[in-house]
């Protein structure tokens, strides 16, 4: 699944680097808390809608560790997923007075710059200066001015080292043992990892968003779209989706995966409802007469409830009659032996099916069947849960309580 086109420019980034010193001083904000603390994050409101994986954001969270968190729920595992990371590492702006975290919003783009920041666990390596620019078109630019060492050599023992993008959806699970208590589990559905060896001085990376299913607002345009995604229309939500986005829980709770199997719009369903139903009933009747082994051919259609129910009863009666006649024709065969053989065959089929399902889920972790099992058995699958002591670096959120003065924000540290 490709949602962003990435272009690495290994030459000078004079065209993509934003010189904040030449911008309007009133719009340039130096965050006082982030510039003097370690592992802190602060919310920043956008003056425009920023499309990220098809979702429009009006608020992001800037972290001291060289990345931007894009999730709605701020937790202690910001480095796990839902990030825009020009260079995520264990940066500590508090170790140097020259280190600052700056952001600038001109109405159509937001620039966040980590200026002269040092690694906490290796200060002597030198300072890093880089920035991320988010455009209202969804275009993302990573620009690097000072990278003293190869990114691949930065230690990830105390903090993850990542360059790229990631997004996920959050699912809320009810805990049956504890009433009125819910657990949030986050599932990453896409990630963009950039080659770290190409990140050097005066380089830039430009990422252009590709179309997603969420941009289609009508059923006809949704099911006829050809954008390398399996787009489906859900009438209950009046939404087009592939099932892999931040609205995943709404998509499942409203039975959209079952509704979108036919991929038909309301007009088509209404026009062909009666003849379609008549055809299915005729097939059901003919198959009930020909049933000899007690098995019906699966159908992708769903006829009215009353008709198939009657058909199933007739099928059972016919199947029972055929079975009795078969036993009468074979007097030397004991019914107990036949039942034992059928039971053994059934157990073997179930075991083979279980092995095949396990292999399929292992090699297709983002398939509909895998997500179905993941959402219903969350404790048996690898997922990032919001629990303490998970081994991820903890980030505290900074909540501004005052007004901005001379490029600084007066706020209390968490």
SSE arrangement:
Blueprint: E1 4-9, E2 28-30, E3 40-52, E4 55-63, E5 67-69, E6 83-88, E7 100-105, E8 109-117, E9 128-135, E10 140-146, E11 162-174, E12 182-193, E13 203-209, H1 219-223, E14 232-234, E15 239-241, H2 248-253, H3 256-259, H4 266-271, H5 273-290, H6 306-329, H7 335-363, H8 368-376, E16 384-385, E17 396-405, E18 408-412
Parallel strand pairs: 3-17
Antiparallel strand pairs: 1-13, 2-7, 3-4, 4-5, 5-6, 6-11, 7-8, 8-9, 9-10, 10-13, 11-12, 12-16, 14-15, 17-18
Helix pairs in contact: 5-6
Account of the protein in words:
- With 414 residues, this protein is α+β, with helices and mostly antiparallel strands.
- Helices cover 24% and strands 30% of the residues.
- It contains eight helices and 18 strands.
- It has helices spanning 219-223, 248-253, 256-259, 266-271, 273-290, 306-329, 335-363, 368-376; strands at 4-9, 28-30, 40-52, 55-63, 67-69, 83-88, 100-105, 109-117, 128-135, 140-146, 162-174, 182-193, 203-209, 232-234, 239-241, 384-385, 396-405, 408-412.
- It has a nine-stranded mixed beta sheet, with no helix packed on it. A seven-stranded antiparallel beta sheet has the order 1-13-10-9-8-7-2, with no helix packed on it. Strands 14-15 form a two-stranded antiparallel ribbon.
- A hairpin with a 4-residue loop joins β9 and β10 (140-146).
- The longest helix is centred in the C-terminal third of the chain and has 29 residues, at 335-363.
- Residues 8-12, 268-333, 378-390 and 400-414 have low confidence and may be disordered.
């Amino acid at each position: 699944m490709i949602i962003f086109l990435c272009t690495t420019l290994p030459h000078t980034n004079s065209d993509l680097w934003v010189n904040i010193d030449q911008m309007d001083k009133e719009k340039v904000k130096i965050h006082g808390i982030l510039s003097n603390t370690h592992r802190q994050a602060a919310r920043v409101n956008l003056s425009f809608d920023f499309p990220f994986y098809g979702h429009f954001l009006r608020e992001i969270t800037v972290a001291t560790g060289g990345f931007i968190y894009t999730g709605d729920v701020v937790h202690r595992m910001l480095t796990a997923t839902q990030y825009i990371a020009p260079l995520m590492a264990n940066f500590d702006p508090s170790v140097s007075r020259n280190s600052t975290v700056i952001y600038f919003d001109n109405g159509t783009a937001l620039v966040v710059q980590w200026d002269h920041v040092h690694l906490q666990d290796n200060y002597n390596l030198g300072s890093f200066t880089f920035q991320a620019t988010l455009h209202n078109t969804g275009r993302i630019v990573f620009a690097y001015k000072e990278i003293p060492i190869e990114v691949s050599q930065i230690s990830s023992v105390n903090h993850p080292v990542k360059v790229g993008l990631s997004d996920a959806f959050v699912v809320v699970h009810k805990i049956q043992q504890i009433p009125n208590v819910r657990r949030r589990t986050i599932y990453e559905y896409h990630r963009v990892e950039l080659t770290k060896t190409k990140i050097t001085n005066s380089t830039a990376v430009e990422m252009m968003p590709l179309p997603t299913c969420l941009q289609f607002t009508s059923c006809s345009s949704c099911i006829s779209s050809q954008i390398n995604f399996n787009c489906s229309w859900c009438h209950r939500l009046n939404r087009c989706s592939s099932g892999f986005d931040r609205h995943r829980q709404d998509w499942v709770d409203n039975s959209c995966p079952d509704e979108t199997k036919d991929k038909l719009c309301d007009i088509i369903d209404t026009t062909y409802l009666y003849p379609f139903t008549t055809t299915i009933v005729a097939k059901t009747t003919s198959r009930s007469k020909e049933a000899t082994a007690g098995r019906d051919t699966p159908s992708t259609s769903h006829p009215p409830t009353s008709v198939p129910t009657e058909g199933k009863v007739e099928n059972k009666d016919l199947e029972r009659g055929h079975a009795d006649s078969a036993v009468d024709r074979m007097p030397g065969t004991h019914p107990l032996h036949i039942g034992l053989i059928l039971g053994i065959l059934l157990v073997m089929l179930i075991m083979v099916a279980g092995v095949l399902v396990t292999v399929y889920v292992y090699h297709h972790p983002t398939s509909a069947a895998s997500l179905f099992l993941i959402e219903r058995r969350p404790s048996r699958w690898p997922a990032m849960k919001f629990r303490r002591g998970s081994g991820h670096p903890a980030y505290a959120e900074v909540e501004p309580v005052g007004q901005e003065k001379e490029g600084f924000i007066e706020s209390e540290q968490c």
